[in-house]
Fold:
Amino acid sequence: MSNAESPYDPPKAEALKVPEDPTSAHIGRRFLNLVIDYLGAVVLMVAAMVVAVIVGDENTIKSIETSSDFLFGIVASFAYYFLLEASFGRTLGKFVTRTKVVNEQGLKPSFPQIFARTACRYIPFEPFSIFFSDEHRCWHDSLSKTYVVRA
Structure:
């Protein structure tokens, strides 16, 4: 008998595209993402402060001057990562390096996964977790069950 498909065989469904090589976004790309995204978050913080000063009244300006820069930085960077990854599945760094965030099935991650991914970035020493993983995944990847793959 030949290996040709019989017209009487049931139709075959295409399987979901699971990332075959979840480490395709290697450490070099991941590091470049980190640097570009850090700069992107800083630009966002500066832009938010400029807008607040331009459109704000005296009380707004005083509250910016007396607010914690650390807290403002956390809120701005959380907004940067969360809004971009929830909207596009990519941050500015991922656009530049042609990578994207996917879930375990290779699809766009869910809203809760993106939230968990963003929140996990604030675990102390989290950026160094990539060096302790065989798959070159950071904790914000593994805990949210997401991957960074080539787009």
In short: The beta strands are 99-103, 146-150. The two ends are 42 Å apart (CA to CA).
